[in-house]
Write a sequence for this structure.
């Protein structure tokens, strides 16, 4: 318990020192500003009386010198305090940074306490094994069950349908044309037998091409 209190005091000490030094610097800066005003006033008094009242002008110059001497001392004090303040702030920042890094190192050590490369490799192997098992299960579930169709039977039925469709088209082609009948007395031109066979073969090739599509 007492140790914890001592740690708190040590932690707050730099902060208190920094705060006190800033207060002191601010007070000295106000004092320096007041001395600068006094110096300016004494300088004006000396200039005003340099020809009419030399004793008064001389006294003003003496007070001016005294104020300048004090101002020089205060300026030196301010410089020393500011340098010291920067040093303390830098040291405190380094301390806090190091403390944070130490806490991070402890946290990493705690996390890695129960871990080693063998356990990591074993875990990765187990994960890979489970992934493979999951894929096998998925493939097994997706496989169709029963009612398998014979591919040869399907091909035979398809070929039969194609043949029937071809025959129906050939029958429809052989029907009498429904176009305009020749007028009475107009001789009907009969196609040569060879020409008719060629036309039928051409029509048959067209049907076969359509069936292939």
């Amino acid at each position: 318990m007492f140790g914890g209190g001592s740690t708190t005091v040590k932690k707050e000490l730099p902060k208190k020192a920094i705060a006190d030094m800033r207060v002191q610097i601010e007070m000295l800066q106000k004092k320096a500003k007041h001395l600068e005003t006094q110096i300016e006033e004494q300088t004006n008094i000396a200039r005003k009386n340099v020809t009419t009242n030399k004793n008064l002008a001389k006294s003003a110059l003496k007070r001016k010198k005294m104020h300048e001497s004090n101002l020089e001392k205060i300026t030196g004090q301010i410089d020393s305090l500011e340098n010291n303040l920067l040093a303390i702030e830098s040291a405190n920042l380094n301390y806090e940074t190091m403390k944070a890094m130490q806490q991070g190192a402890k946290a990493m050590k705690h996390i890695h306490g129960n871990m080693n490369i063998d356990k990591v490799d074993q875990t990765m192997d187990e994960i890979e094994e489970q992934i493979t098992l999951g894929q096998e299960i998925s493939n097994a579930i997706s496989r169709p069950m029963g009612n398998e169709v014979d591919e040869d039977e399907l091909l035979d039925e398809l070929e039969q349908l194609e043949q029937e469709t071809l025959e129906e088209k050939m029958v429809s082609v052989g029907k009498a044309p429904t176009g305009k009948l020749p007028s009475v007395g107009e001789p009907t031109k009969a196609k040569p037998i060879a020409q008719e066979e060629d036309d039928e073969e051409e029509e048959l090739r067209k049907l076969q091409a359509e069936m292939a599509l």
Q: What stands out?
A: Residues 183 and 189 are 12 Å apart (CA to CA). The mean pLDDT is 81. The helical segments are 2-49, 54-111, 117-142, 151-173, 193-212.
